[in-house]
Amino acid sequence: MGSVGVSLDQPGKEVPWQVKVAQKQQQCRDAIPAAWLLPPSILESLVFPLDKTPNRLLDLDIPRKSGLLSDREIKITEDYTVVELLAKLASGEFSSLEVTTAFAKRAAIAQQLTSCLTEVFFDQALARAKYLDQCRSEGKLVGPLHGLPVSIKDSFQVVGTEACIGYVSFLGKTSDANSPLVDTLLGLGAVLYVKTNIPQTLMTADSDNNVFGRTLNPHNTALNAGGSSGGEGALIAFRGSPLGVGTDVGGSIRIPALCCGTYGFKPTSSRIPYGGQANPGLAGMKPIVASAGPLANDFEALQIFSEAVIDSTPALLDSTVLDVPWRRLDNDTPARLRLGVLPADPLYPLHPPVKRALAEACKKLQAAGHELIELNVSECRVADVTELAGHLFTLAPAAAKAKIDASGEPVVPSVLRMSGVPQLGDQTLTSSLADLDSLHKLAALTVKRQEVAEDWRKIWVDNKLDAVISPAAQNTAVAHDTYSWVPYTVLENLLDYPACVIPFGKASKQQDGDAMKIPPGQGGPDYDPELQDGAPCSIQVFTSRMRDEECLRAARVVDGCLNKESSS
Questions:
Q1: 251 in a known ligand binding site
Q2: Which residues belong to the active site?
Q3: Which of 244, 307, 406, 414 is packed most tightly, with the most Cβ within 10 A?
Q4: Is there a binding annotation on residue 202?
Q5: Which residues of this protein are catalytic (predicted)?
Q6: pTM of the model
Q7: Which CATH fold would you assign to the domain 19-316?
Q8: pLDDT tens digits for range 172-229
Q9: Between 3.40.190.10, 3.90.1150.10, 3.90.1300.10, 3.40.50.300, what CATH number should domain 338-519+533-566 receive?
């Protein structure tokens, strides 16, 4: 760890939070090998400050121009899906050492430009890659992910690293045991090499904290990368990882996916190991149960991850996991799906590019022979769910605040923006809770939650739906600290539905040229056609609870229809 001139070992003196952060940040800088630092010519081509200026990093092709990656390393990181990489690793055409080195180099570049990483352990990763290559030379593949680099969100524990999740008060606490999913991935043959950035409290869509700074969107550094798995979204979009793992309690896999133009899958809770993570709130308080799941640049990677992890019987390592095997669906993929279309809620209107992307997706799906059923706004209850989720999330607000206050660090702007409950609509629920204590409030919210679940049961049955397509958000990526409530993702968390985000199209100032300011009485960020030009758009596909296999099957059909070059 680099020195900043103040010792942390001064008896009787509380070290200022700024000093702790400075030392951690120096440690992070030192973790990047000197040979992998960007040359001055690259930095001189950018306009600073990066978060205030729309530097379009992906268009600039910095990894190639930097000279830090060989042509073969560029090809490894850019030209292959996860399926193709695994095949080449299994055949020996690629070694795990060279694939891990290529993605580690690219991750190092991504970090210098977007602040997407937290913990970096390249040396250990390269040593593991060599071990896996030796295993392969002896005729043994460790598992279905043999030799593949996999990035993970900062909240997962990896022995010998920290999991401070953006809290200064958590700095200096080294993990002495792996999270069960970490051990699961190692058992499957993966190579873990980096952990990725998150928001303070893990409860906003802007991955910004006082320890690691703000994660920037590689499509446009003036736009947010999403949260809370924003580091994963940025890293994967930059192709610094072929496959990443995030978590999702209100959209925290799907929002980074939609902001950064990647695929993302939130499974039903407890199907993928979630235990043993650093906790941002009150231990044991889980009014909405979070899920762990994958992000990637190709759809098939979502299935590979989900199937491999669930097939490994993770309940042997994690008591929070449902011991339910991955189901092989008997029938072939249906040629014709019956798809519900989730309408925009009037309180959370869609931005023009999102509205256009959804309309174009529906048109393509209908042209391909799929049957689309427009669902009823009042029956879907998107705004009601958002208010209900807001109350559930704020049942114990003091826990996260105490972790911030413990170090004296300030609350970051995005957390301040998202404090409280949405103040929209008739607020009948909010007023009915005003005089209740916490226990009776939880009971009342649970009753309301079951009412919503019953309404949605009727929607599935009455319409005989295979899946529902919807916007993943009312917006694309937006200016930093302006992302608002998450109505179109928290719906699936409250109902515990599996949901998949599929990239489809981009915002265009030519096609979506009219600015949009959200008026009083409605929620969401404003739309700036100039700033958001080129931001990725996406479509969300979801099914009912525990139908993860059907969700991915339907999403594959939708992806094949919308992005034919991605279909298989």
A1: yes
A2: 153, 228, 252
A3: 244
A4: yes
A5: 153, 228, 252
A6: 0.96
A7: Amidase signature (AS) enzymes (3.90.1300)
A8: 999 999 999 999 999 999 999 999 999 999 999 999 999 999 999 999 999 999 999 9
A9: 3.90.1300.10
